[in-house]
Structure formats: C-alpha cells, structure tokens
Amino acid sequence: MQNLTYLAVFEPSTDGSYSIYFPDLPGCISVGSNLEEAARMAVEAASLHVYSMECDHEEIPIPSVNLSREDTEGNIVMPVTIHPDLFRVKKDNERVKTNITLPAWLKRIAEENKVNYSRLLETALIDYLQIPMSGR
After folding, report:
1. Cα–Cα dist 58/50, whole Å
2. pLDDT (tens digit, 9 = 90+) per residue, 43-100?
3. Which of 122, 102, 98, 99 is nearest to 111 (CA)?
4. pLDDT for res 53
5. Nearest 5°: CA angle at 6, between 14 and 47?
6. Which helix (H) or strand (E) holds 12?
7. Measured in whole angstroms, how far is the alpha carbon of residue 13 from the centre of its chain?
8. DSSP reduced 3-state for 122
C-alpha cells in the first residue's frame, strides 16, 4: 500500500481558524475552524487532490523534505500522510446519483413491483458491459 507524506502549511487567522495549503500540491487548499479540524481537512484535501491528479493521469509530485522560509515564517508546518490506494477504493465505490427517464407506465408497474432501480441498473450495466467479477 502506498503512503505519501506532504508538508502542509497552516496559516493562522485572527478568528482562530487556519488556512491550509501544500507547496508540493499547487491548488490544493482548505480551511479549518481550529487546528484540529484543519488537520482533518488537510488530509481530505490532499487525498482528493492526489486522487484527481491520478484520474487525470498527471504525475504525482514527490513530497519535499524542506520548505522555504516564506512558507514557514509565522505559520505551522505539519506533515500530512495520505493513503492514495485506500482513498481511490473509497471514491471509486461511492454511490453516485444518476437520473434516468422512463415511460410513466413502466415506472408505475416497476413501483407496484417494488423494483430497486439502483440494484437493477447496476446489475444490468455489469452484464451489458461484460465486466468480469475480478474487474469490480
């Protein structure tokens, strides 16, 4: 299992919240109302950012060991470890909503027969696309 540890920069605000960014992951930002929440949000943001990069077939940056004085001065720097393999499995298996259209008469009969549209469509798509059991 692959683990990546990036250095996160937590910029404190006067209201006690923290803005978060990752110098190694441009565009990866988040915020937390306190340091504890900011640490949780940092893991989620970095995980989602790396997942998106993987989906776009982009090269995943190698984590830096040191940061510039500009990043560290007046800020809190904390290592944030993410588990891209676990996050990918979680995201790829999330249920997503999909709208479909059916003739009203068919919908009526399906509801009378208590059809589970999600289960039926999932099974039908797996069969139609001939996805083997190992591909799931």
Report:
1. 9
2. 999 999 999 999 999 999 999 988 888 888 999 999 999 999 999 999 999 999 999 9
3. 102
4. 97
5. 90
6. strand 4-12
7. 26
8. helix
Integer Cα distance of 124 and 8 in angstroms: 44
Phi and psi dihedrals of 22, rounded to 5? -120, 110
Residues 25 and 36: their CA atoms lie apart, in Å, by 21
- Give which of 93, 19, 85, 9 is closest to 54, Cα–Cα: 85
| Amino acid type, 37 | E
pLDDT digits (tens, 9 = 90+) for 84-126: 999 999 999 999 999 999 999 999 999 999 999 999 999 999 9
Tokens 């891209």 correspond to what residue?
84
How does DSSP classify residue 41? H
In angstroms, what is the C-alpha Rg of the chain? 22
Two tokens at 107? 């919908």
- DSSP per position, 51-115: HHHHHTTPPPPPPPS---HHHHTTSEEEEEEE-HHHHHHHHHTS---------HHHHHHHHHTT-
